[in-house]
Automatic annotation (TrEMBL):
Every YCII-related domain range: 1-88
UniProt xrefs under SUPFAM superfamilies: Dimeric alpha+beta barrel
Pfam families in UniProt: YCII
This protein's name: YCII-related domain-containing protein
InterPro entries with a match to the protein in the record: Dimeric_a/b-barrel, YCII
Similarity comment: Belongs to the YciI family.
Top-level taxon of the source organism: Bacteria
Species for this entry: Rhizobium esperanzae
């Protein structure tokens, strides 16, 4: 199953984000799940929080939810909102390698 996490940074958490960035990256790189793609958006428009997306291949949605809950950014409230959902890609070059 392919899953995605769409997270939006909480206002006023830039210092916390900077402090935890290396820990967050290490958590993603050391993940026991198969992360296919991960990264932040381009710099946000004025007044909007930055966003980040993780796309992973897992056995169950619950497995990914547990992984996400352990992310330092999630645990510390750097993200103001986190949406996790199953994604069913239907075409594209990367799909051939899944």
């Amino acid at each position: 199953m392919i899953v995605a996490r769409y997270a939006v940074s909480a206002p006023g958490k830039a210092a916390e984000r900077s402090r935890l960035l290396d820990e967050h990256r290490a958590y993603l790189h050391g993940a026991a799940i198969r992360i296919l793609l991960s990264g932040p958006s381009a710099p946000p428009a004025a007044g909007k929080g930055s966003t980040a997306i993780v796309i992973a291949q897992v056995e169950t949605l619950a497995e990914f939810e547990a992984f996400s809950a352990g992310d330092p950014f999630v645990r510390s409230g750097v993200y103001g909102s986190v949406d996790i959902f199953e994604w069913r890609p239907s075409s594209g070059l990367l799909l051939e390698n899944l």
